[in-house]
Design brief:
Elements: H1 3-26, H2 32-56, H3 65-87, H4 93-113, H5 117-135, H6 139-142, H7 148-167, H8 177-251, H9 258-286, E1 294-296, H10 298-311, H11 313-316, E2 318-325, E3 332-334, H12 336-353, E4 357-367, E5 370-377, H13 405-415, E6 419-424, E7 430-437
Parallel strand pairs: 2-4
Antiparallel strand pairs: 1-3, 4-5, 5-7, 6-7
């Protein structure tokens, strides 16, 4: 087989493979300009296949009319793709009829009409350059979007058009060095253009995925906001009802004795403090402060919280507080105020679970590259069906709990690059373990 014919055969096979890749990508990225590029690549593949038929079947030295029509159609579809990319142009039936007529006229131009074949080649090259210019992204398209594929394709189509024009004036007999050079440049431009189109499709698919992810995140945020609002309304309603009832009783001066009035005022203050605690927890949850981490010794925090529990006689009068800190635990970076808040909330949960009687253990140890801070109590534990929900906002088994303590604790621990785990069994107590990375500094 002659070398030029072999090159044509290899090119046809390569073009067909690239066309299949385009068809596969189009199945998941149906954009109008990509559809027209798919048609353009299909027309180029068809023109190469017809070129083989011309030589092998009809023994023609010049391209046949169908081959010429396919070549012109490929350039026309490329121009349509550029127009669709820039202005969302859409091919209509009338446009297809006019384009088909133009393709047929140009294919017959040299043999029938007598027009110089080089003039047709220059015209097709100019149209291809115009398609390249149309693919160069505008300022509106550049804003916030990666356009490397568009720029690469615009430059390559422009060079491809210049190559088509230049080859009209460069003698390149089949088998000559000039022929191989012209063919090599054409194949290179074709393959690089295919690569640029693939980049365009992947970048647009990624951008679309990011937009969908942003919309999903916004929908989840709105759903969470609705759940928080509902939970907040539920938590506020009870203390407000108690306050309203207490104020109604206090307005009836003749209906209350002095002890009853004193008890009502005490209840009013208790519910007001409860309402303030709920609102404070909600604000800490809704507007978390950024962790200001600095290298420090976790022993100080644990000893401080342990002392607070011992001194709080109203809650832990009969609670035996044990603090154990492994000497191997190093200093690491953390926000002292936030970790104090977390440890206090978790320890207070343990004290309340034991009804003020039992043993509370604060244990700090080193686990590989982490510091493990564990809070254990000897309370009744947590039922298995409740464990998956303990970190949900406003979920609490305590009658007066806000349901935000563990939620805030988990958020703070996560902000420190750590994690929080709960081991509990009915009747076997509860162990809450918080692990922080030592290299957090």
């Amino acid at each position: 087989m002659p070398v030029p014919l072999l090159l044509t055969f290899v090119s046809t096979v390569a073009f067909a493979i690239q066309l299949l890749i385009f068809a596969y990508l189009y199945s998941s990225h149906r954009v109008r300009f990509f559809q027209y590029l798919l048609l353009a690549w299909g027309a180029y593949t068809l023109s190469k296949g017809l070129k083989l038929v011309d030589v092998l079947v009809f023994d023609l030295e010049q391209s046949s009319v169908p081959t010429g029509v396919a070549t012109v159609a490929a350039v026309g579809f490329m121009l349509a793709a550029g127009l669709a990319y820039r202005w969302n142009y859409r091919l209509r039936g009338r446009d297809l009829l006019i384009g088909s007529a133009v393709a047929l006229v140009l294919a017959l131009a040299s043999d029938v009409i007598g027009v110089d074949e080089r003039l047709v080649g220059v015209g097709l090259g100019a149209v291809q350059m115009a398609a390249g210019v149309l693919f160069w992204p505008s300022r509106d398209q550049i804003a916030g979007v990666r356009v490397r594929g568009e720029r690469l394709l615009a430059g390559l189509l422009t060079l491809w058009g210049l190559h088509r024009i230049a080859t009209q004036f460069v003698p390149a007999p089949p088998g000559s060095p000039a022929y191989f050079c012209v063919h090599a440049v054409f194949i290179t431009l074709y393959f690089l253009s295919t690569f640029a189109v693939i980049i365009m499709v992947l970048e647009r698919a990624r951008a679309e995925s990011e937009r969908l992810h942003a919309r999903l995140s916004e929908a989840e945020r709105l759903a969470t906001t609705g759940e928080l609002a509902a939970g907040m309304a539920h938590e506020i309603r009870n203390p407000l009802a108690a306050i309203v009832n207490a104020t109604a009783l206090l307005t009836d001066e003749a209906g209350l004795t002095a002890p009853e009035r004193s008890a009502t005022v005490t209840a009013l203050r208790t519910e007001a403090r409860r309402l303030n605690r709920i609102l404070s927890d909600f604000l800490r949850f809704a507007r978390p402060q950024e962790a200001r981490r600095a290298p420090a010794d976790i022993r100080d925090v644990v000893q401080h919280v342990g002392a607070l529990i011992r001194e709080d006689r109203s809650r832990g009068a009969r609670v035996d507080v044990k603090v154990a800190v492994d000497p191997a635990v190093p200093r690491f970076a953390f926000d002292r105020d936030q970790l104090t808040q977390v440890l206090w909330n978790v320890a207070l949960n343990g004290v309340q679970a034991m009804n003020g009687r039992g043993r509370l253990t604060l244990d700090v140890a080193r686990e590989d590259h982490h510091v493990a801070l564990a809070v254990s109590d000897t309370g009744p534990g947590i039922p298995r069906d409740m464990l998956p929900r303990v970190f949900e906002p406003f979920y609490s088994a305590k009658p007066n709990g806000s349901g935000l303590g563990l939620t805030i604790a988990e958020r703070i621990v996560t902000a420190h690059g750590g994690r929080i785990d709960i081991d509990a069994a009915p009747g076997g107590g509860t162990r809450v373990t918080m692990r922080f990375p030592i290299e957090a500094a």
